[in-house]
Amino acid sequence: MFGFSNSGFQEQTHTVARKDWENVLDSLYRQAINGHKVGLTLVSDTIRSNPGDVEGTNPGELTFRVKSSLPYKMHDKLRKFDSKHFHRIFEAYNDSKDKNDFYHLKSIGIGQEVMIFPLAQGLEKKALLILKFPVEQVILEKLLQQIKIELQRPELPPPKPGTAVTLQSALKPAPQADDEPSSEESN
After folding, report:
1. What is the pLDDT of residue 2?
2. 10 Å Cβ neighbour count for 3?
3. Of the candidates 41, 12, 15, which has an alpha carbon nearest to the alpha carbon of residue 28?
4. CA 49 to chain CA centroid, nearest Å
5. The predicted structure's pLDDT at residue 139
6. Is there a contact between 39 and 20 (Cβ–Cβ < 8 Å)?
7. How would you write the chain as a 3-class SS string?
8. DSSP strand pairing (125-132 vs 39-44)
9. What's residue 87's pLDDT?
10. What is the pLDDT of residue 177?
11. Is the peptide bond preceding residue 134 cis, with omega within 30 degrees of 0?
């Protein structure tokens, strides 16, 4: 793991104190992954046990929130990232004395270099924001600011039954037919 962007590193930027873990991950997915050209996926070791579950449970496997505009082939490629690599990253991160905000990894089992941003809530809940590599410093700073803002927000209550949020979270995305990225990507 090669550290990148450690100016102003603060441990709390990588620790989620809020109890609504799944809401935090959903928001970070929308902002940092789907909302940026460099975003690829958010990988976690938790999942909602039902649409109203905001804390998440550990199913024993990884869950993926893959950028919606990526070609379906890329979705498959990203989902090859496995638990072994996931847990090794957190072991290396926890053992490291020189902490950084983002890390450049050459191999995580998907066949391309990436930037990652680790998040954790205690020892049981972990997540990685995975970005394309290389990433301009200004983009990393913008992402870091968005992450800090999200982690400082107050906790959100579970969605009320019958709302669009609960209905949407119960739906599974259909596979995309084409392999062309959409033109809706923004930076």
Report:
1. 44
2. 15
3. 41
4. 18
5. 92
6. no
7. CEEECCCCCCHHHCECCCCCHHHHHHHHHHHHHCCCCCEEEEEECCECCCCCCCCCECCCCCEEEECCCCCHHHHHHHCCCCHHHHHHHHHHHHHCCCCCCEEEECCCCCCCCEEEEEEEECCCEEEEEEEECCCCHHHHHHHHHHHHHHHHCCCCCCCCCCCHHHHHHHCCCCCCCCCCCCCCCCC
8. antiparallel
9. 92
10. 45
11. yes
Do you know the residue count of the chain? 187
pLDDT at 26: 93
Q: Which residues of the chain have pLDDT under 70?
A: 1-12, 159-187
**Phi then psi for 9, rounded to 5 degrees?**
-55, 130
Residue 105 forms beta bridges with which residues?
Answer: 114
Q: Please, what is the Cα angle at 172 between 157 and 39, to 5 degrees?
A: 75
Q: Which two tokens stand for residue 5?
A: 């962007």
pLDDT tens sequence across 143-187: 999 999 999 999 987 766 665 444 344 444 444 444 444 444 444
Q: How far is CA 96 from CA 29, 36, 60, 90, 103, in A?
A: 26, 28, 25, 10, 12
Record the pTM: 0.79
Amino acid letter, residue 121: Q
Residue-level pLDDT at 147: 93
